[in-house]
Amino acid sequence: MNTNILKQQIELKKSMLCVGLDVDLEKIPKHLLDFEDPIFEFNKAIIDATIKFSVAYKPNLAFYEAYGLKGWLALEKTIEYLNKNYPEVFTIADAKRGDIGNTASRYAKAFFDDLGFDAVTVAPYMGKDSVEPFLAFKNKQTIMLGLTSNPGAKDFQLEKLSDGNYLFEKVLERSKSWQNSHQLMYVVGATKPEYFKMIRQLVPEAFLLVPGIGAQGGSLEEVCEYGMNTNFGLLINSSRGIIYKSNSLDFAEAAADEAQRLQLVMKKYL
Ligand SMILES: O=c1ccn([C@@H]2O[C@H](COP(=O)(O)O)[C@@H](O)[C@H]2O)c(=O)[nH]1
User: Between 237 and which of 13, 31, 169, 211 could a Cys-Cys bridge form, CB atoms 3.0 to 4.6 Å apart?
Assistant: First the structure.
């Protein structure tokens, strides 16, 4: 999918919400464990309940890989379900891949061609040749880690270089010269709102995927205030805050209520 459809969806739904599908069998309602594929049943119910308020879904691969083959099959069924029933929705494989070019091109094929995701997250530490194989796929987006939401972001990303810039600034700046860089988006944590202005100067046109509201304590209002651009420019993720709002029979309804609450805040800025 190109970003035009995403922009139309944001305008239509008055939402920049991305629902994170980070499924943990210990946290989902117990009655779902009786199904043959509880992960998929959970995802399907969450997707159907939140679709009115959300423009994107982001399964984090760790939560599927942790269950081996069963987890991978549930991931396949989830992306198939999204692509078949809601083709207008933007899908992100949060895989944070990064490897030599030859290997990176296999990752890109797996997520874009075989699974059919619209976007995949990548770690830029191995440089240009580890990211460009993803960018070679037309109509697909590559979401590069920019300034992450976790405390450890300060260990490398916020290291000051001799020219006075932060390492993450250099990474973002450099990435703009890569082939098909117009297909790049960037991960920026909601927990670091003070850097949004700087990031917007570096990548004014790009979409930012912003995790860190809800469970990690970032402010949705601050993200909207400082992170938007003239094309909206934001996908704001919440995973645990939505999908585990309730772990009883009403879990999907509770997720929808929380998604709507977030959407109503976003609507004020759209
Ligand atoms: O900087 C980053 C990059 C990725 N994530 C991922 O986003 C979600 C956040 O989940 P919450 O439950 O809403 O906290 C999760 O999949 C992370 O791995 C991030 O949090 N920060």
Answer: 211
